[in-house]
Design goal:
Strand content: 15-25%
Shape: elongated
Structural class: alpha+beta
CATH topology of the largest domain: de novo design (two linked rop proteins)
Number of helices: 6
CATH class of the largest domain: Mainly Alpha
Radius of gyration: 20 Å
Helix content: 25-40%
Number of strands: 8
Strand order of the largest sheet: 1-2-3-5-4
């Protein structure tokens, strides 16, 4: 059966002398794996389609009994070429697609998540949009869509409001107040400004202005919270390759 899908390329793997296995995230069927035969040949018209982060439309031969479908043809919708002009933005885009790849289930359709992915890559490729804020928005909304929304407004143990600070770490999956939290070497402190920023990101649709202004310490705290919270809830994210480069930029 011939099918069509709108998708974003997450990763590729060379196969044989001239072919590729491509992992995509699509609007229609969620994660999709294709084998594109001959696509690495110099004569292939589809050679440039399969760079990670490319937004494409593909036509493929679908077989219900196979996890790997056969690529027929495709066309570019958006290459997000602005990413290639800025190493920081390109790095964040690579984190975005790898994070999605490690968190979504196979063949689980999620149109809202697909649109979040496309919108985020568009923001990251736009030099007039803060790349860090575009990424933070993606990360917290990805967690929400996957059922791991961060609840930072109150202590998860005693339910007292977290106004000035909270703490994450140890064996507890959600932030606690200083009275309830048992500090360990892995404890992450969350300032009041970071708490407000997370709440703002979750409560509002995307907006490029009127966001809380974080100092360097709070920005570092937000990065630490997002990743430690994600590592706790989604184990496969601990081994992401793109995180090594991200830590060099923001570590």
């Amino acid at each position: 059966m011939i099918e069509k899908a709108e998708a974003v390329v997450l990763k590729t793997l060379n196969h044989g002398d001239t072919s590729k296995i491509i992992t995509l995230y699509s609007r229609e069927v969620g994660r999709l794996k294709l084998i594109a035969k001959g696509v690495r040949s110099p004569k292939s018209k589809s050679m440039g389609l399969f760079q990670p982060t490319r937004h494409i439309q593909v036509i493929y031969y679908a077989k219900a009994t196979s996890e790997l479908q056969m690529f027929k043809s495709g066309e570019l919708i958006d290459g997000f070429f602005g990413l290639e002009e800025d190493f920081d933005r390109l790095t964040l885009a690579q984190v975005v697609v790898e994070l999605l790849d490690r968190t979504v289930e196979d063949e689980e359709t999620h149109p809202r998540l697909f649109q979040l992915l496309v919108d985020t890559l568009a923001r990251l490729s736009n030099k007039h949009v803060s790349s860090a804020e575009a990424y933070w928005f993606f990360h917290v909304h990805l967690l929400r869509e996957l059922g791991f929304r961060p609840h930072v407004g109150h202590c998860s143990s005693c339910q007292e409001p977290l106004v000035h600070e909270g703490f994450l770490g140890g064996h507890h999956p959600h932030p606690e107040c200083i009275k309830c939290h048992e500090a360990t070497q892995h404890t992450v402190r969350i300032s009041g400004e970071v708490i407000k920023t997370i709440q703002y990101l979750l409560a509002e649709p995307w907006a490029s202005d009127e966001r809380p202004d974080l100092n360097s310490s709070d920005r570092r705290g937000l990065w630490d919270f997002l990743w430690n919270y994600t590592f706790y809830h989604i184990e496969p994210t601990r081994h992401m390759r793109s995180l090594k480069v991200l830590r060099q930029l923001y570590g």
